[in-house]
Amino acid sequence: DSDLSMRTLSTPSPALIFPPNSAGFQNGRRSSTSSSSVTGETVAMVHSPPPTRLTHPLIRLASKHQKEQANIDRLPDHSMIQIFSFLPTNQLCRCARVCRRWYNLAWDPRLWRTIRLTGETINVDRALKVLTRRLCQDTPNVCLMLETVIVSGCRRLTDRGLYTIAQCCPELRRLEVSGCYNISNEAVFDVVSLCPNLEHLDVSGCSKVTCISLTREASIKLSPLHGKQISIRYLDMTDCFVLEDEGLHTIAAHCTQLTHLYLRRCVRITDEGLRYLMIYCTSIKELSVSDCRFVSDFGMREIAKLESRLRYLSIAHCGRITDVGIRYIAKYCSKLRYLNARGCEGITDHGVEYLAKNCTKLKSLDIGKCPLVSDTGLEFLALNCFNLKRLSLKSCESITGQGLQIVAANCFDLQMLNVQDCDVSVDALRFVKRHCKRCIIEHTNPAFF
């Protein structure tokens, strides 16, 4: 990276976040002020604001003609700001280079509550440094307006970039760094310690993250009563493969206000980790442990302690869960609205019966690839769960058209039905379409269209 590209002029502004191999263009030709001195990556550039007028007479005439044709210039400032609010960060930086007016509008504080950067090649550490430096001009070293940072899929994000966020954004409420596998526990600890208002954290795909906790220094400074409390309510740790029960124990002890927790494909989590979770986090509404192959019926017994607070549960492909685990959930979690049990081959009609009779407000159910569920189970669903809107029966070998007709005759609000790889007739599918007019049917029967 060239140090020249980061030179700060009298009034700094990160004007562009260039895509790979891009350059500046003027009137269809490559500009001599092209900043793509580094090929194959994206860099944040710093420029002064555009001049108020152009000095060359020919250029002045051209700009006057263009100004007459530019109806957008007639819009008032508040309308321009409303338009700019829909632009991602890199496009907003480009707008700051158009003219002096756009420069001032593009840096309106109301537009900088969110920074959104995407792309595998972007030098996101440098971009964050440049952007936060500009946003800190009026309030030295602090971005008081910035509440959301989304840098998903930026593989070049490192601990240095997260440290910049932690130092400059004390009012941060939402951070998404999914797919940024170069960040570590230490950087995450810095963010949650220095951003006390952080409520939404997405570290999915960050394979080096094994825990969420305060730094030791932060724990010492805070009072013993609140020293371990983190205000995070939404936590997504999908594909954090190294997360173990002990790490989940630490997370639960620090993040006691959790309401949404996603642990998809955290393959080392067991029933013991769920036991720790239920001791501290009693307000969880949504929980996913899909593809956690060591979770069994004992884990379902622990989850059932959430009782009526639990509304969403995903246990897809947890092969150790049977009717016993479903009975625990159905007995205590009567207000469950969503259940994904796809691939839980130990579930039978008895489990579906108990679920249907106790969770009558169920709206979405996925029991695909459960070969022991038949038309009998569907009949229990149809006679008890009248509010059912989404039903997936993909690859259920024992399902026939008769079961589908019973569902369609009772669940008029059905909006999605998946019967791919099921042995159902065209007549049964037409019956469903006739009774559930808004239902989208996913199927593999070429005769039905």
Automatic annotation (TrEMBL):
Stretches assigned to the F-box domain: 69-115
Gene3D superfamilies (UniProt xref): Ribonuclease Inhibitor
UniProt keyword annotation of Coiled coil present: no
Main location as per UniProt: cytoplasm
Keywords: Cell cycle, Cell division, Cytoplasm, Cytoskeleton, Leucine-rich repeat, Mitosis, Repeat, Ubl conjugation pathway
GO process terms (BP): cell division; protein polyubiquitination; SCF-dependent proteasomal ubiquitin-dependent protein catabolic process
GO terms under cellular component: centrosome; SCF ubiquitin ligase complex
ATP-binding recorded as keyword: no
Compartments (UniProt record): Cytoplasm, Cytoskeleton, Microtubule organizing center, Centrosome
Pfam families, per the entry: DUF7885, F-box-like
Ranges where the record places region Disordered: 20-49
Classification via PANTHER family: F-BOX_LRR-REPEAT PROTEIN 7, PARTNER OF PAIRED, ISOFORM B-RELATED
Physiological role: Substrate recognition component of a SCF (SKP1-CUL1-F-box protein) E3 ubiquitin-protein ligase complex. During mitosis, it mediates the ubiquitination and subsequent proteasomal degradation of AURKA, causing mitotic arrest. It also regulates mitochondrial function by mediating the ubiquitination and proteasomal degradation of the apoptosis inhibitor BIRC5.
Family that this chain belongs to: Belongs to the FBXL7 family.
Quaternary structure, from the entry: Part of the SCF (SKP1-CUL1-F-box) E3 ubiquitin-protein ligase complex SCF(FBXL7) composed of CUL1, SKP1, RBX1 and FBXL7. Interacts with AURKA; interaction takes place during mitosis but not in interphase. Interacts with BIRC5; this interaction allows BIRC5 to be polyubiquitinated by the SCF(FBXL7) E3 ubiquitin-protein ligase complex.
Name of the protein in question: F-box/LRR-repeat protein 7
Provenance organism: Glareola pratincola
